[in-house]
Here is the input.
Amino acid sequence: MNQDEKKRQVAEAALDEVRHLLDSKTPIGIGTGSTANRFIEVLAESKTQILGAVASSKVTEERLSNHGIELLDLNTTGTLPVYIDGADEADPQLNLIKGGGAALTREKIIAEASSQFVCIGDDSKRVDVLGTFPLPVEIIPMARSLVARALVELGGNPEYRQGIVTDNGNIILDVHDMLITNPQELEFAINQIPGVVTCGLFAKRPADILLLASQGNVLKFVRDA
Ligand code: 5RP
Here is the structure.
């Protein structure tokens, strides 16, 4: 099974997982990336009734619109029953690294605003310890050097992501060489640096359910309450 087939398979499993929550009055959150894109396709093809979706990026907004799915504003929906999105890495506690697609800030806002966060991917995303994937950090442009120095102090090796402006008009530093043994502590520490909008660690608000396509099966992991 190739990567694309795995994404499709896990997207179908995600719809099965959340279908009981959905009806024509239900708003949902949908993330950004190739796996979230497969979920949008599966959702549209299934003709499952939902009120509409809050998107974590402009790219996802466009995809949703192209599939005839209503765009919703998080300021009017209130708490969302469910948010579906991919990740770059997931550890056994369902802490995540996200932001490979530069949408981490809106993703974190929607995750925080959702009762249930269902994370989807293939089995390559599962790691024992986060940090092999460089940690994305969204930054106000004038603070780039200041924040980079602070990230070095924290033990990382930040690299400016060339040519990327986020949907919020900011830039991204990708932090290499961090073995993230305490994701909550590091998330808090990075988010305290002036000029940081947010980092791509999802540990204060991890996933609730992780679905990973693997060898023809979908593995399901549920976060300990
Ligand atoms: C975007 C993200 C994505 O969820 C993450 O990069 C995974 O993407 P993909 O499903 O393409 O592997 O965090 O900011």
Observations:
- The chain has two domains: 3-128+204-222, 135-200.
- The first helix runs from residue 3 to 18.
- Residues 143 and 195 are 5 Å apart (CA to CA).
